[in-house]
Amino acid sequence: MSENKVEKGYKVKPKICKLCKSHKGVISKYGLKICRRCFKENAEHIGFRKYD
Ligand SMILES: [Zn+2]
């Protein structure tokens, strides 16, 4: 695998929680970009539900 491959027109953004600005445990999946703590607190507001 090559490390030199650069995707044009795409800037790598740092993973920072858009809610609390934390960079710890930030979930970038699903386009959330929020930390696990905020995810847990806001999951229902965002539309995610717990499946437990
Ligand atoms: Zn957060």
Question: What is this entry, summarized?
Answer:
The protein is of the alpha+beta class and 52 residues long.
What is the count of DSSP helices, taking H or I runs of 4+ residues?
1
Helix content range of the residues, please?
Answer: 10-25%
Fourth-level CATH superfamily? Ribosomal Protein S14/S29
Shape: elongated
Largest sheet: spatial strand order: 1-2
Q: Are there runs of 5+ residues with pLDDT below 50, and where? A: none
What sequence of helices (H) and strands (E) makes up the elements? EEH
Ligand catalogue: zinc ion
What can you tell me about this protein's structure?
- Helix content is 21%, strand content 8%.
- It has 52 residues and is of the alpha+beta class.
- The protein has a single domain, classed as 30s Ribosomal Protein S14, Chain N, CATH 4.10.830.10.
- A two-stranded antiparallel sheet has the order 1-2.
Secondary-structure topology with pairs:
Blueprint: E1 26-27, E2 34-35, H1 36-46
Antiparallel strand pairs: 1-2
The structure holds zinc ion.
Characteristics:
alpha+beta; binds zinc ion; 52 residues; 1 helix; 30s Ribosomal Protein S14, Chain N; two-stranded antiparallel ribbon; 21% helix
